Amino acid sequence: MYGRAWKGICDRYIRAHTLCEECKRNGRLVLSEEVHHIVPLLEGGTNKHNNMMALCKSCHSTIHARRGDRWSLCIELMKPIFRKSQMV
Question: How does pLDDT run across 29-78, given as a tens digit for each residue?
Fold first, then answer.
């Protein structure tokens, strides 16, 4: 689903939207790192700019966790465990 073409789209979108759109909406200036589909491709979304948001990694993970995306939620739940294992 995501290949070289998607990487090019992301790179161009992030160059045009250097700040995380969610952080900016909340009064914070944080660099964007990832591109999010507002309507997922699997649900009929497109790669058009009006269906994309430039986000920092934290906001992107939070949005997916809120949506109930199982994989993202699993990653978020595992982060504290992973951090603890790195301290040992």
Answer: 999 999 999 988 888 999 999 999 999 999 999 988 877 665 554 555 55
Query: Domain residues of the chain, as ranges?
Result: 4-87
Q: Which residue has the tokens 């990694």?
A: 57
Q: Rounded CA gap, 35 and 54, in Å?
A: 5
Long-range contacts of the stretch 74-81 (C-beta < 8 A, 24+): none
Q: Which pTM value belongs to this model? A: 0.71
**For 15, what's the count of Cα atoms within 13 Å in the CB-facing half-sphere?**
6
